[in-house]
Write a structure and sequence with these properties.
Length: 232
């Protein structure tokens, strides 16, 4: 198993998260300038910017151009409840549905996919990797990847089933990625590696392995949400 070393910006983000959690940096407080943080940590300005962008994505800080970066809240807003569409029970139901449907879908796709369909999956993963490099959460590309797998299964009903709940699936994907940004034990690279493993099995037309890798990925998603979100 490959073990990834935390990137410099992740290490900086982790230190700032600890200071926010411990109350060293309080809500509404202005953070030191990028230049000062870079000097204090002995890193580049670019690394500090990446760290602040990661904290902005999960809602811990607010960046006001021309004024600085301010602590927005002590704990991240991992899910958006404004629409009331995503309740704990609904999240659990979505995960259960995905586990029932997507394992077999991955197997069918590995056995039936065409080269053209394979290209669509590869492009989605390239966009996911690009989003990560640009400090974006990348849930749009994540959803496209899973829908491309369903489309390549040669089963219209499976594709339509996932497509009809795609908005809710994307919300859980966004929440999962925000947790990865917030949780110092998980990395976005690890999440990408799980998707690459699924794609590799599909490329090799190994149905059993595709099913196994999809199960492994969805189990990790479930565990991530259980650890940080009340699922009972």
């Amino acid at each position: 198993m490959k073990i990834s070393r935390p990137k410099i910006y992740e290490q900086i983000a982790n230190r700032l998260i600890e200071q926010i959690e411990n109350g060293v940096l309080k809500e509404g407080e202005r953070l030191p300038s990028i230049q000062k943080l870079a000097k204090d940590y002995g890193v580049s300005n670019a690394s500090v910017r990446e760290a602040l962008n990661a904290l902005r994505i999960i809602g811990l800080v607010e960046i006001k151009h021309g004024y600085g970066t301010f602590v927005k809240q002590k704990t991240p807003q991992l899910f958006d409840f404004i629409s009331q569409a995503l309740t704990p029970k609904r999240v659990k139901e979505i995960l259960e549905l995905r586990e029932v449907v997507e394992l077999s879908t991955a197997q069918f796709t590995a056995e039936r996919r065409t080269d053209a369909m394979l290209t669509e999956m590869e492009l989605a993963l390239e966009d996911m990797a690009q989003a990560m490099r640009m400090d974006k959460s990348g849930e749009e590309a994540d959803l496209r990847f899973h829908l491309a797998i369903a489309k390549a299964s040669d089963n219209e009903l499976l594709y339509e089933l996932l497509h009809n709940i795609s908005d809710l699936i994307q919300q859980t994907m966004k929440g999962t990625r925000h947790i990865y940004l917030y949780n110092r034990q998980k990395t976005m690279e690890r999440l990408l590696e799980e998707h690459v493993a699924i794609l590799t099995a599909i490329q090799q037309q190994n149905g059993a392995m595709a099913k196994h890798q999809m199960a492994r990925h969805l189990a990790e998603v479930r565990q991530t949400l259980v650890e940080h979100y009340i699922m009972d």
